[in-house]
Design goal:
Essential cell division protein. May link together the upstream cell division proteins, which are predominantly cytoplasmic, with the downstream cell division proteins, which are predominantly periplasmic. May control correct divisome assembly. It is found in: Cell inner membrane; Membrane. The chain is an alpha/beta fold and 238 residues long. The chain has five helices and twelve strands. A hairpin with a 4-residue loop joins strand 9 and strand 10.
């Protein structure tokens, strides 16, 4: 006796119902795959740059950014781009984000130059050293000298001395910490103050007292003050 494997009308109806339900789902999957592929392949449409920058070389910045921005929008390596741009000595920090549908936002935070350091370095307001190519064009009123390993001591001494000088209206234009530990200070009126290595606080206090009592009227004629003596000062005149 032969077996009949043909589908019954009920089975055929169930298959058709399943197909009718699956076709829209398959269409949605295909559309989603197409949309995803389109988004992943979509190029960067706009780049917006924020932040006030005065010394950053905009042309150089563009040259370094363009190769990274050639990638599709969703595949731009934001971390790599940030590291590349932060190679610019003037950039303290770069924040990069994506914005739907195809925009890259870059916020530039430029270093704030505070003082010259040694012959070709600049100190920013956070006390970090950087070496910009255009350092000679800066007009900074303070110049600091030290070995790199003594920079923290130099900055602490400046803060202490600047505070100590405020009541006497003395302004610092230069501080030098010599390799052997001796301190040399230049005031804005051209007076050089030699403090040496030892008993620094005592010598500073003696200088300030003497200056307030005897020297303001004579400061135009003073060239150098040597405070390294145990019980007094030596004044060099113009």
């Amino acid at each position: 006796m032969a077996t009949d494997f043909s589908a019954t009308p009920m089975q055929t109806s169930l298959v058709l119902k399943w197909l009718k339900a699956l076709v829209p789902l398959l269409v949605l999957i295909l559309l989603a795959a197409y949309a995803l592929n389109w988004m992943l392949a979509r190029p960067v449409g706009q780049v917006s740059i924020y932040g006030e920058v005065r010394y950053v070389d905009q042309h150089r910045l563009q040259e370094h950014a363009l190769p990274w921005l050639a990638a599709p929008f969703w595949r731009v390596d934001l971390a790599g781009l940030r590291e590349e741009l932060e190679q610019d000595p003037w950039l303290e920090k770069v924040v990069i984000t994506r914005r739907w549908p195809d925009q890259i936002d870059m916020q530039l935070i430029e270093r704030q130059a505070w003082a010259n350091w040694n012959e070709d370095g600049i100190l920013d307001k956070q006390g970090e050293i950087f070496f910009p190519a255009n350092w000679e064009s800066l007009e900074l009123s303070l110049h600091l000298y030290s070995e790199p390993e003594n920079l923290n001591s130099l900055l602490e001494f400046y803060q202490y001395l600047n505070k100590a000088f405020q009541e006497s209206d003395l302004r610092i234009s230069e501080i030098q910490l010599e390799p052997r530990g001796a301190w040399r200070v230049e005031l804005t009126d051209g007076v050089t103050l030699l403090l040496g290595r030892d008993n620094i606080e005592k010598r500073i206090n003696r200088f300030i007292w003497t200056w307030n009592q005897w020297m303001p009227e004579e400061q135009a004629q003073i060239k150098k003050i040597d405070a390294r003596y145990p019980n007094g000062l030596a004044v060099g005149w113009q």
